Amino acid sequence: MATSAVHICVLTAFSDVPRNVLIFRFCLIALKNASIRQRSL
Fold this sequence. Notes:
This protein is mainly α.
């Protein structure tokens, strides 16, 4: 699940270069939340 999210983030970041900084920040937040959820499980 996390790997597919990373693939989507990377593909979106490379396809939309002007917004890649915002996308990168969003991905970091999403990955942080995902890792926190996995730890709580």
